[in-house]
Amino acid sequence: MKFNAQPLLIVGSIAFDDLDLPSGSHRSVWGGAASYCSLAASTLLPRGVRVIGVVGTDFPEAHLDELRARGIDVSGVERAAGSTFRWHGRYSEDLASRTTLDTQLNVFASFSPKIPPALRSSPFVMLGNIHPSLQVGVLAQVDRPRLVAADTMNFWIEREPAPVAEMLRRVDLLVINDEEARQLSGIHNLVRAAADIRKRGPRMLIIKRGEFGALLFDEAGAFFVPAYPLEDVLDPTGAGDSFAGGLMGYLAACGDVTPAAVRSAMYFAAALGSFCVEGVGPQRLLRADRSDLHARIASFGRLVQHGEDLVLPPA
Ligand code: AMP
Fold this sequence. Notes:
This protein is of the alpha/beta class. It contains eleven helices and 13 strands. It has helices at 33-42, 61-69, 132-141, 154-159, 161-170, 178-185, 190-199, 239-254, 259-277, 283-287, 290-304, and strands at residues 8-11, 15-21, 24-31, 49-55, 73-79, 85-91, 98-104, 124-127, 147-150, 173-177, 204-208, 214-218, 221-225. The mean pLDDT is 96. The site of adenosine monophosphate has 14 residues, from strand 2 and helix 8.
């Protein structure tokens, strides 16, 4: 594998999360899709992650300093008058499902991403979950990227089908969960759902299935990575965004978009997702260094490689 690192632009929410977890409640935890995604990506791409987002006057500069300390360019993070986006979620006892109790858009309501001229040439772009028209608006501001990935959610699929369709036509890779894939396609079977979604634009589709791993569908076929089995799962918030950050961070670090690179990237994505759920908010992710990553990738290898070819016993 040759590495030819290229910049990665990440657009999305920066938030305060109020989290009701089986282990206890936590208020005003630093969160948001762009935060998790950029922290995860920066572990693989130490220089070259660029974040675009908005925060309010109440957002501590110290959090932006933590991003800067990881070599993340925050010149595209606007500070607007008002309060930072706030999300309140409650998880079930088994952490398998969550309910949104409240979403306060605050400064995020009038967010219209503006890409500073110095960041317009970003070969890798991750469009986090924002209004699909804003996702398309970002693409109008960047020089033709090599790889554009996007996330979306039920809310947009239900309420903004035409802008979602337009966004799909413009992205190379869509990263969504199984529920969203079913809703978007209207098809329950994920293999058929994936084929349907890929006909609408993205040549690559990743369907995240939480603790059941993730499936990739592309021109080379289907590929699967499991979720790393963990003894202690504390908080699943941001796992999907950390997965996307790990995936895009790895691809940008390689400067490669081939099916083989995307398959390797799936392991780094799953590793970053596994770190994320081990702490409340981004706590564990903030502590994850290269040696942690090295160890987890090695454990992943032991999990999935059994060392021999699978040979059918003689008849
Ligand atoms: P995930 O667990 O990967 O789905 O991401 C959770 C993060 O998404 C939390 O930190 C929230 O702040 C953020 N979030 C929740 N709802 C929204 C929304 N409607 N738009 C943008 N970000 C959101």
